[in-house]
Amino acid sequence: MSAPHVVTEAAAGCPSRPACLPCYQDSRARGVVLGGEAARFMETEKERTGGHPRKGQKRRQVPNQLVRATETRRARWAQEDMQPEAKKARLSTILFAGNCEITHGQLCELLKYAVLGKSNISRPSWCQIFHQNHLKNVVIFILQGMSQLHFYKFYMEFEFLRKTFRHKFCLPAPSSNFLADIIGLQKKTAGDVPKNSEGSLPSASSKANINLQDNPIIQKYGSNKVDLINCLLTVEEMKTFRFPLQGSPGYENFVPTKCNGSITDRSPLFGLDCEMCLTSKGKEITRISLVAEGGCCIMDELVKPDDKIVDYLTRKDIHRTNRVGYDATEDARTALELAQYFLKNGPKKIAELNLESLGGSNQKLQEAGQKPKNRIEVQHPNASVLECLHLMGQKLLFVAWETDATKFSSYGNCETIKCLSNKEVFDQARVEVPLFPFSIVQFSFESFSPVLTEEMSKKMKTKWREMSTVYVGPVSKTCNFRALKRLLKSFGPVESMSFVLETYQLHLCVQYEVLEAAQLAIESLNGVMVEGIYVKVRRPVTELTLDCDILVNELAQDSENRDTIYLSGVSEAFKEHMFQQCDHFRGLEAVILPKESGKQKKYCFLKFKTSGNAQRALTILAGKDWKLKGRGALTPRHLHEWLRDFSSESRRPPGLRITPLPSDQQALQTLKTDHPKIAAWHWGQKIGKLYHNMDPGTLCLVLLPGSKSSIYGSLPGLGLMAIKDEEGCTATGMGL
User: Fold this and answer.
1) Which long-range contacts (CB under 8 A, 24 or more apart) does 149-152 make?
2) Distant-in-sequence, close-in-space partners of 288: CB < 8 Å, separation ≥ 6
3) pLDDT value at position 704?
4) Domain of life here (predicted)?
5) Which of 322, 473, 569, 650 makes a 20 to 30 Å CA pair with 396?
6) Largest separation between any pair of C-alpha atoms in the chain
7) What are the φ and ψ backbone dihedral angles of 391, each rounded to 5 degrees?
8) Are strands 438-444 and 138-144 parallel, antiparallel or unpaired?
9) Those residues with Cβ within 8 angstroms of residue 285's Cβ, 6 or more apart along the chain or in another chain
């Protein structure tokens, strides 16, 4: 089978030239790759002529059928490029700057923007959500009691999280109320946020001594509150309103829904709205919308009428003027809110509001220069997420342990579900999350003892240092050590380099600053002849590095690393060179150039749209024209910064054994289900099940808050973020 024909995005820079042999030299500089017969023909011609046609000799042409085939393929590619892609909500891939730490306030910015969009609130300052109006829901999982240290200590166990969530960021150690910080309630009390779930319904003062007996609502339902089951239409009422009952005219055109079980006062409520158009035979349905109790849209479908449409009736002035466009689910949600308001406040309240409305209270307000306050407005940047949800007529779902669930219980537009275990939290979330547009699900884990946390932290620091350390040898005592050191430094920044004198033959111990440099040295030099001797390049073998090969492979498959490459040997002019040659690098999204004391280091990371883009760029950059060394990335930016912040107290001779505390060792042997290692795997899988049940277009965050202690120190948190089934980024750019 012949190799596939591939044209990179850069080939579009030469649209007037077919990718045929006569323009190959020019096309090659632009990033055109030929395959199959054309490629083999090119190689044969190059070998026969020494790369260039002899003087006076005509250049041999590619056969016509190959030219035509190439032109056909180019036309097909051009047509495919012009095809409009369905818009999907997606996150920018260039999220962070500096140390990749996102404050709780910045996280709150993102959540508010996800709810309201740019027409009502400013964009978050640290990332972008493209096509925000295509977001379906927002779901936040909080792993209370865990931190960034836990995630990388049990990195292998958190398989689903590390492979699914492409965007990761550091969180500062939490305050006393982490939830209030990320929701924006730090300076608010329950009185500052709406306590009622009425949505757009205005409040009315009670009217004493008013005769309401003539009101039709009172006549039908009485003055006291009524149950849901007593609000159902009777058969006679359904006949009056021409419901398609069995045996009625036109019934054969309807499909009845089959309800299992009887309706009770605890049965769920749904809001339904049908949009009509005018056809040649009258009004016919064109759209149907259905929302659940939390305000989440579970159905929004267009219906094609049988007859020709003469008027779409798209005039929906009754809607808010501060919204751009029309949300077809708004009427369904409003109908649901009206029913909820009626059940909560009773017929008497509705009758009083009717009388007040007839009295013209809104007209009086307008005459006084005031506007009826139908919904709260986001007029300042300190608005909370709950206020934003209230503006949209939506509720927040909070599922947590009973001891934690009281935090939002005083807020009216928050549905709180109290649980007695993590298993119950999971079971409730599986049922309730799909029904709400914004959900917070909190799992709680017992915090580690300070002694165990300190021991675990030391192990982590030691493990990453040992993985970044290599032994090189044996080397000859008469070798050119300056050249050898220069060779070892070509793979990346070296923190320290020393001779090992405890061995019969001379070895070098090299401590690299980044894991990628150590791995590149192993892959490039192990088994290679240096100064007349075949050398081995390997890591120290300790209990912490026994599985490092597996860990390195898993790091390479991390969702944040798959599309990123590491390069060593870059100069200060590298950025300018990249700009000049950017046509070679399709899908380039970011160039990350680490600096120290204002001076650029000699390595960098390039982030691409896809792993295929990254591998093609690596092939070019590691070639003879660029003379760089590189491989796939292993350390996400936030992890690299975190590792750099490790204190120097962990620096010790590689290979020194750390004995686990007896309690930890015993727990590992018994493999109890509540051991952190097992819990990390178990609940990572549980979150995976909940994630797979979400609608495409759902913004999902997993937050490990960290911990803060004035006595034992603080542990920073970690955030993971993704939009389910988000499309890849299409724009290119440089992030410095």
Assistant:
1) 149/453, 149/456, 149/457, 149/460, 149/715, 150/676, 150/680, 150/704, 151/704, 151/718, 152/460, 152/639
2) 272, 273, 274, 275, 299, 300, 301, 303
3) 95
4) Eukaryota
5) 322
6) 112
7) -60, -35
8) parallel
9) 274, 275, 276, 277, 303, 305
DSSP assignment of 406-448 equals: GGSTT-TTEEEEEESSHHHHHHHHHHHGGG-SEEEEEEE-PPP
| CA distance linking residue 483 with residue 504, whole number of Å | 23
The number of folded domains in the chain is 2
Q: Which pLDDT value is given to residue 466?
A: 94
The answer to whether position 627 is within a domain reads yes
- For residue range 220-245, what is the model confidence (pLDDT) as tens digits? 788 888 888 888 888 888 887 778 88
Contact 469, 654 (CB under 8 A): yes
Q: Tell me what pLDDT residue 205 has.
A: 39
Element (H, E) at 539: none
pLDDT score at 617: 92
Contacts of 429 (CB under 8 A, 6+ apart): 399, 439, 441, 690
Strands 717-723, 167-171: pairing is antiparallel
> What are 274's strand-pairing partners?
288
Q: Does residue 291 fall inside a structural domain?
A: yes
Among candidate residues 376, 329, 351, 437, the one with its CA nearest the CA of residue 195 = 376
Token pair, residue 516, equals: 């990628």
Axis-axis angle for helices 676-692, 422-432 (nearest 10): 10
- Which structure tokens are listed for 407? 């935090």
Backbone φ and ψ of 9, nearest 5°: -60, -30
Question: What whole-number distance in Å separates Cα of residue 494 and Cα of residue 30?
Answer: 36
Q: Which of 633, 659, 692 is the last residue of a domain?
A: 633
Structural domain includes residue 606:
yes
Asked if residue 287 belongs to a domain, the reply is yes
* Domain that residue 286 falls in: 214-240+267-313+327-353
Specify the DSSP class assigned to residue 527.
Answer: T
Show the tokens assigned to 233: 């239409």
Burial annotation 171-203 (CB, 10 A radius, 16+ → b, else e): bbbbeeebbbbbbbbeebeeeebbeebbbbbee
Q: What's the CA gap between 465 and 241, in Å, rounded?
A: 76
Q: What is the CATH number of the domain that holds 575?
A: 3.30.70.330
Beta bridge partners of residue 470, listed in sequence order: 510
* Amino acid code (one letter) for 552: V
718 to 67, 512, 686, 703, 704: CA distances (angstroms): 54, 25, 19, 6, 5
Q: Can you tell me the distance from the alpha carbon of 510 to that of 466, in angstroms, rounded to the nearest whole number?
A: 10
**What 3-state class would DSSP assign to 22?**
helix
Q: Give the tokens for residue 413.
A: 């537009």
Residue 327: the pLDDT is 66
pLDDT at 631: 95
Last residue of a domain, one of 615, 633, 651: 633
Cα 651 to Cα 508: distance, rounded to the nearest angstrom: 18
Q: Give the span between the Cα atoms of 589 and 732, in whole angstroms.
A: 5
Q: For residue 535, what are the contacts with CB-CB under 8 A and spacing of at least 6? A: 472, 473, 474, 475, 525, 526, 527, 528, 529
Alpha-carbon gap, residue 386 to 390, rounded angstroms: 6
Distance CA 681, CA 686 (A): 9
Tokens 């054969």, residue located: 252
pTM of the model: 0.64
Residues of the chain with pLDDT under 50: 1-63, 65-67, 69-70, 73-74, 76-83, 97, 190-191, 196-210, 317-318, 320-325, 361-362, 364-366, 368-377, 647-662, 664, 667-673, 728-736
CA-wise closest residue to 474 among 494, 498, 500, 456: 500
